[in-house]
Amino acid sequence: MANKILVTGGAGYIGSHTVLQLLLGGYQVVVVDNLDNSSDVSIKRVQEIAGNNGSNLVFHKMDLRDKPALEKIFDSTKFDAVIHFAGLKAVGESVKKPLLYFNNNLIGTIYLLEVMASHGCKKLVFSSSATVYGWPKEVPCTEEFPLSAANPYGRTKLFLEEICRDLYNSDSGWKIMLLRYFNPVGAHPSGKIGEDPRGIPNNLMPFVQQVAVGRQPALTIYGTDYVTKDGTGVRDYIHVVDLADGHIAALNKLSDPSVGCEVYNLGTGEGTSVLNMVAAFEKASGKKIPLVFAGRRGGDAEIVYASTAKAEKELKWKAKYGIEEMCKDQWNWASKNPYGYESPENGHH
């Protein structure tokens, strides 16, 4: 069992939940995060929830593009594997600031791969995204679908997947898991960690959550004329704890001698419309979410959900939680932390 893991972006939403599962599984974890879009409070909370295992977590505030700092961490610690979450992820922002996204996501990852190679650490679990399917012509999306990017953010994920494939082709000593996430939602059932986006959220659930706690007046729904049951877009929402467990399964798979550079969808295999999700959240929270209907947003696909057969078969992993649990846990986090990790008393708002 690989027991010392470097987690980049480990203070973020998916990162923090995965770090928690790693600690609970007995791993030693080193987190590096530049805290650009996250808070180190999440690290402290993860340590609390992990109890006695919390002491197996070390945190470094660091940017992956600071190569000497990265070298230093690899010089001082021998890692069994790396889980790479770090990156910018807002689609709209990537359209406005493509160079920011290419600089951060591509250069940071290339430095990470170079430093891993020079230190003989060649096991990687990489955060990819369902955005690499572009606008899929049919559903569910299987891992063999043609790849395309609809925006610069998606392009960074696509380029990085290609870089990983080229790296493996050049040196079969690498073992790489490319995990294509669908739409992560929910929070740890303790309500101590969850999604805490800076500024105005880009994704449905954090926005719904901000409306429910009174931070936003209404939810804008983009596109009501899609060819779906209720006219709103359909996505595959996955509980973040299920997603975190998928990373543990991928990590275990790295010890399989037959593994090279592999791709897995992590989703539930179920499509849920925006209006279905809002209704489930209203039920879980007992709050009415005021809606504003708007035209379609550029770059949004109509229906996207995963085929999960490959992950079930090869990783022995399957999502356990449905949208009721996702919404219940999301509301539990939101109601306990209406301002995320920064409390309003601290003068942050």
How would you summarize what this structure contains?
The protein is an alpha/beta fold. The chain has helices at residues 13-24, 41-50, 67-76, 91-96, 98-118, 152-170, 204-212, 240-253, 274-285, 309-314, 323-336; strands spanning 4-8, 28-33, 57-61, 81-84, 123-129, 175-181, 183-185, 219-222, 234-235, 237-239, 261-266, 272-273, 291-294.
Task: Report what the structure shows.
The chain has 11 helices and 13 strands. It has 349 residues and is α/β, with parallel strands linked by helices. Strands 3-2-1-4-5-6-11 form a 7-stranded parallel β-sheet, sandwiched between helices. Helix 6 links the parallel strand 5 and strand 6. It starts with a strand and ends in a 13-residue tail after the last helix.
Radius of gyration: 19 Å
Secondary structural class: alpha/beta
- The N- and C-terminal alpha carbons lie at a distance of 44 Å
Low-confidence stretches: none
What order do the SSEs take from the amino end to the carboxyl end, as H and E?
EHEHEHEHHEHEEHEEEHEEHEHH
Strand runs, count: 13
How much helicity do the residues have? Answer: 25-40%
Major beta-sheet overview: 7 strands, parallel
Q: Which band does the percent of strand residues land in?
A: 15-25%
Mean pLDDT: 96
Approximate shape: globular
Number of helices: 11
Order of the strands making up the biggest sheet: 3-2-1-4-5-6-11
